[in-house]
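BUG: 3D viewer hangs when loading the predicted structure for this chain

Environment: internal workstation, default settings.
Expected: structure renders.
Actual: progress bar stalls at 90%.

Input used:
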Amino acid sequence: MAQEQNVYDVLFLGGGTGGYVAAIRAAQLGMRVGVVEKDLVGGTCVHRGCIPAKALLKGASVAATVKGASTYGVTPGEISLDYSVTMANARKVVEQNYKGIQFLFRKHKIDTIEGYGVLTSPTTIKVQESDGASRELSAKNIIIDTGSTPRPIAGLDWDPKRVFNSDHATTEPYLPKRVIVRGGGATGLEFASTYRDFDCEVTLVGRVAPNEDEEVQKDLTRAFQRRGIRVIPNVRPTADDFEISDSGVKMRISPGGKEEIIEADALLVATGRYGNYEGIGLEDIGINVVDGYIAVDEYMRTNIPGVFAIGDVTGKQQLAHTAMHQGVVAVELIAGEKPHPLDYGKIPWVTYCAPEIGSVGLTEKKARDAGYNVQVGKFPLSANGKARIEGEAVGFAKLVVDGDTDQILGVHLLGGHATELIAEAGLAMMFEATAWELTITVHPHPTISEVIHEAALAVFGRPLHI
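Structure tokens produced before the viewer hung:
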């Protein structure tokens, strides 16, 4: 009887964002579900990533709003910024979300098995518990959701006060007065934005938004510079270029061939993440790993029958919403449903810096490189009434369209509420709407969403408000 209690229809190795959502869906489908987790269910996104980082950004946004309140006839008294309170609020939000997940697990009778799990066969996981005891669990299907880890600069050790990553930045109430942010991807941009709104001196080292449309890169760089963030795009410092001491950080670089030493209190490393595939028994059962990520097909199946992988460890897209849907696809396939495989080219990605970024599909350059007859429609937020009202008139909406078929190839938004507005573009692309169909879609007025309508009109050379 005890052995029977350890047999699951689906057993998760790791309970990140994709894993916990997939576990709930599996339980809804009538399966017996267990989640092996060495830390806290919810993973990086809930505890050290998306959720606390955006809560910190909200604090930064409020700070920026208060500083500009006199524009609206509101004159606050002396402004006091207390980052420790902002961090405490972020941790409170994390705890609320975590309690919500725990409630859902109880509701759906999902077992949480605390400990470090290792695959011992395609149907078994050995769990090492914190008290030293171990046990083996069996399952008809196993889903690997072990996530990823911040990538360090080779040769530099982590230090929560001097050389830190996003895990530290979302859990430690430390606000460096001067900070070097190494890396211009989403994580680097968001923390550079947060720190600047809290009056830190920020130097961003690396190409800004390297995966975005070139016009987004260009305009965001200018927006950051106007905010007082120094951007140094064309250098790639290594460990030898840094001097770390108790008093701070020194970085030696040579932009334009002239050597310069930049001093700061801390270095935030935001140079990407690597998949957590080592030490979990993959090699013992022969699971294929390609370029540091578990290889999967469109239904998240590995090369071993009955073993699936989802989330960052697959290297498909390191996005929480992608992981969630990957997990749902996997468990619905296990349940005998007919899930729709993900079309990664139609999944939006967003960055919550100020101004925000929302993108889906091909950039203009990638579309041209792919051989499309590209037509572009672009509309500035500065010509949108609601953006002016909100005081967020920096940015634009841009449609990349196939001139032969009117197919929307990509949509790129820069500006206020871009992270929310991009969902419309994702829906349009999923249902293969054309640019013309967007022109006949009535958008409410006054809203920032009208910039998408105007950009569609611009494809045909007839925007109304420029």
